[in-house]
Design brief:
Elements (H helix, E strand, L loop, with lengths): L1 E8 L5 H7 L5 H9 L3 E7 L4 E8 L2 H9 L2 H10 L16 E3 L7
Antiparallel strand pairs: 1-3, 1-4, 2-3
């Protein structure tokens, strides 16, 4: 299982709305994530907008491409894009800054 950690930056004026949106993620989006191999997926948000994501998947490139091809993901990404800084025209799922894993305690 591949462990993946990534960063994004939520705009400070959108923090509360971002949190509210994630209290009610569309059921179709949740189903698509599960079907494409996203497991143990969590998001953590710091008060300055730093967003840390974590997931486990058998194959991260396949998990990303599987979601990229889903219409539900394309709609979700369009709705979420205005919440983030520094995407420069990319969708949020294209602007993830993946972190290198340097240690894992089994």
């Amino acid at each position: 299982m591949e462990r993946v950690c990534f960063l994004l930056k939520v705009k400070s004026e959108r923090l509360e709305e971002y949190k509210e949106r994630h209290k009610a993620v569309w059921p179709e989006m949740l189903e698509a994530l599960r079907e494409t191999g996203w497991r143990n997926y969590s998001l953590f948000l710091r008060e300055d907008g730093l967003l840390v994501g974590y997931l486990e998947t058998p194959d991260y490139p396949s998990a990303l491409s599987g979601m990229a091809g889903r219409e539900i993901n394309q709609r979700w990404q369009r709705e979420m894009a205005p919440f983030f800084e520094g995407l420069e025209g990319r969708r949020p799922d294209q602007g993830l800054l993946r972190l290198e894993e340097v240690f894992h305690l089994d």
